[in-house]
Amino acid sequence: MRFLFPFFLIGVGMLIDYRAFFKDLETIKVASVMIIVATLAKFLAAWLTQKTYNFTLDQRRLNFGLSNAQAAATLAAVLVGYNIVLGESASGQPIRLLSESILNGTILMILFTCTIASFVAQKGAKNIALSEATENEIDDQDSQEKILIPISNIETTDELVNLGVTIKSKINNSGLYGLSIIDNNSTDGTADKNAKKILNQAAVTASATDNHLNQLLRYDLNIVNGITSVVKEHKITDLILGLHVKKGISDSFLGHLTEGILTKCNTTTLIYKPAQPFGTIKRHIIIVPKHAEREIGFPFWIIKVWNIARNSGAKLVFYATGESLAMIKEIQAKHPIEAEMHDFDEWDDFLILSRDFHKNDNLIIVMSRKDKASYHNNMNKIPLYLNKYFKETSYILIYPMQAGVTDDSSIDLKNPTFIEPLEKLDEIGKKLVRLFKRR
Fold first, then answer.
1. Rounded to an integer, what distance in angstroms lies between the CA atom of residue 34 and that of residue 44?
2. Residues 6+ positions from 380 with CB-CB distance below 8 Å
């Protein structure tokens, strides 16, 4: 059986006169009619099935893609008709039941329908797989919002805590965790005292905003292992990492971070470098990469950004592609905040945005792990851009949750008590709508 179809297709191919595609207008007419009728019939069938069984858009795409391709059966039927000779013409040419134009037109129809079916089915299957991966990734998790802030520098402690207070839900008053890690081999007693001093200061800063900060002191040989272990032990949902106020961000830092924490923790991770007090920031410029709305972590980071605007009153300015802006506009329509939205899909023009920055602006860049849907090659240049053009500007790098990242922790959306209601985003993320609809 495995040899039947290859020989069958080769045999049919030998009958095709490719010159007819260029000199015989009848072949083009026949092919056009066959393509339109076949494609339209399959689409209408898929559409009616969608309406009858309440399928999603992606399920309709998959149904249409899998049924639209015309191949062996169609070609075999046409070949049978082509081989039936009804008689001969005056010139001695055979008169066939199905002419050569129909045979050639069938080949064009097969080429077109198989091509469009492949792309449509792939798109539908990819979105369905992403939706299922999302549900599997987040269905077996603790429902409480927990924000972890590793702190080691007393100069940045207050600002990191202030960021944590601002991005959290108002109804979550005890979900902040401060972490200080001490080298397990350290014999110096001052390290323990300094760590406790920093944690106490963080707790005081949080209490000034009527929030309780849970103090975690951990002994470990490795900082990355210490952080990732705490994330899993306490089922942390969000991680805030700080950069020194007077120092920039290096390639080695991002590389170490990517190879360490980001590969082991699938939490929404924010890397913050404060250049001024967070409460004095008037605008947040958010750069969103292409296909960000396809990532499973899209609603998780977008609600944190939304909380910044709602808890601080600052203005949000989004630079994103049309697909991402469509989702953001839906949220804006039902949960209005002060926001601007600009179409932006060229990361090569990233530096142009620096001209419009003001003194009290904060830059937020949504990043991606390598080889994920929203990854862009220019993300490797982000440290260079920030150090050269945004040295005096506060900025936050956000690494969202992404499918395929190994992690034992996740989030349960069945009863997300920490989420304030943000309703329907889009059909792509129907499984994620629960995050925005329930408290």
1. 15
2. 251
